[in-house]
């Protein structure tokens, strides 16, 4: 599941822990991806959007946010949906966290060659 969602990024994170805290790497694989992300109650896209929302709201987890924005794309979430959940966090965690989230999304989208299509959802203009 880790590979399906995060591809090489997740593997590299787990491998980077091998010299200092291999247990943390094991927990990531076994609990986060083995138990939680493998559940059947929610689609992987919904799980990734929830993760992007939470990491955006935290405001202090930019590397993890970028991995999960990428992961959301990997499991079929649209760039527009990703941006929408990040913008939603402005209401609950403030504009700075939403602005930082949009910045992270912009970087991931640029790396992937994708982009959001809703430039102005209030007026319907693009």
Automatic annotation (TrEMBL):
InterPro entries: 4CMD/NDH-1_regulator (IPR052512), AhpD-like (IPR029032), CMD-like (IPR003779). Residues 22-107 form the Carboxymuconolactone decarboxylase-like domain. SUPFAM superfamilies: AhpD-like. It holds the Pfam family CMD. It comes from the Bacteria. PANTHER family: 4-CARBOXYMUCONOLACTONE DECARBOXYLASE FAMILY PROTEIN, GAMMA-CARBOXYMUCONOLACTONE DECARBOXYLASE. This is Carboxymuconolactone decarboxylase family protein.
